[in-house]
Design goal:
single chain; 371 residues; Mth169, Chain: A; 3 domains; 5 strands; 54% helix; globular
Amino acid sequence: MLSPVNTYDQHVGARLLDFFDAATPWHRSLWNPSLVLTLKETLEASEAFRASARGKESLKDLINHAVKLAGSDPGTGEPKQRQLLQKALGTTLPHDGLDYLTVAGITKDIEAQYLARWSAVLADTNTRPRPERTARAVAAYLLDLGFSSNFLHRWWTYRIRHEPGTREMADLLRDAHQLAQSARRTFDVLIAFETAPRSPAGLPPRWIDAASASAWLKQHHFGAQGIRQEGGMLFQLLARDADSAVEAATELLDNFAARLEISTNLPWKPPVPTAWVANEQRPFKLGRRTRKVHVRALEREAQIYSASTPSIVDAALELLAPLQASSPSAAVAGGWAAIEALFLDRLFADNSQSTGGILEGLRRGRTRKFE
């Protein structure tokens, strides 16, 4: 456990648990991507710019952000490497050019040594960054590697609060570095259904019948009593941890549900709200945790059940709803669309077509031509 008298380590530890805890309020959550992910996104943006799928100014803004982030992050490496990285980022970063390949090579080095370098920096009390900066950098790096927040919360809780003896954060980061270097593993995940999600094309891939599902549960020492099921889907998934494997299985179910409903108009049969992972001692709760997206003004202004004429705000709220618990792709698309919807009034302020007309056209599956 961390030393109770080391206020710096205690601060970093408390914030790490905040970032990985599902119950943390949104304003105390982690919002920034890691240095590694930012550099990877910059490389992807360079490729998109070459394909005319991204604008020059957008690429430039992302490069400038990467330069600023790399300049202040100890995980970047020695000063010479930091200077080389910033010099390569100082160009337009043409795809597959020398500067592009330089950034790609340094990004791989940073990803492999990131937490080891942070551990070395924290060992020197004169050079270590502020605790909030440290916690954000470490948490973002681990989450961007693909570890689930539930797994990381358990992993850090044990070492910060329950592990025998007293350790420093720099020492714990060496353990975290070893964790980060571990390879993805294959997990067998079973998701059962009370009613099989049949379609005109038959049952989904990886489907096993009820008897096989019960036998699998017994084989892996899970109690099958009281579980009503007509069969299930048995996935084999590469993941960092069991929680991540269950999340990946949930993504696949969302994809199957969308395909079924769009192609056949048949309702998707929801699975049993429990998933089982081979060689794990406990079942996993199936379903997404809410992202704690709250618009408190609706409650304060008594507008939850407003019967007024629908406005652009109502449209934005409908688009915002997927942020609460939908799949990441739907959440990102809905959230971005909600932001854009709020600008419709401004965009069409001088247009003959009102916002109300636009919304009515969207409801009926058509819109008038925008002049």
